[in-house]
Give the backbone structure.
Amino acid sequence: MRLTLVYLSLALVTSHSAQGTPPPGYRLVFDEEFNGPFQISPGTGWGPMTSPLKWIAHTPYSGDFGDAYFTGPSEPNTPDPFSLANGILTVSAYQDPAINNHWRSGLISSIDQTGHGFSQALGYWETRLVLPQGEGVWPAFWLLGMESIQKGARTTNEAEVDILEAYGENMNLAHQTVHVWAPNGSQPYTTNNTSKVVGMTTGWHVYGCLINTDLIHFYFDNVEIWNTPTPVEATQPLFVMIDLALGGGWPVDLASPVHMEVDYVHVYAP
């Protein structure tokens, strides 16, 4: 579940590095360049995450959200929402050929339902994207805690860090949110920010997040756009998800298909 409230951040501050390089003192621990073959679980995309796979095609905790079914790379009777060409992953949302007035789309997760795969405690996360446009698109790059996946249920508070959410009703706004989820589904802590940016749908931009024990820093094209105190839950191992969801509280009024492009995903450890 992902929620976003709106606070406008108009100042851009604190550049930390050039594109594709970590902050000083960090080393690359997860490197996805999408040069192929695409290392994702086949079929419905539910896993398990066995070597050399890096991704599954659903959230590992329960399934879908929003107004499109997330779909595996080779599910029967459905087009593949993923394609690779020239080092770029294209994630496509399209009208479901088997269900009238419904959509399918793609999500990638770096762990499976048993917790196998990649997660990282503290560090720097980065991706480079071209976002789709159109009423109802809801792309995101986000991190989630491991505890509920490893134990099969959430038994303690757990962090979610939304490095980027964007909504088709205004694609000049980049949303960032930090949630803490309680076992009963409530949010004992949440804080959020919305930054006015330019060109998310017309060119490549880098979205980054540095999590330290004191602050979480959010970056757009290597320039800091927001920081917020780090809840203790966000210092635990987090895994990566990127998705092209639809809806998010907004009506979906799109010509099928729509596409999001992903250049790379990098994670650095201190």
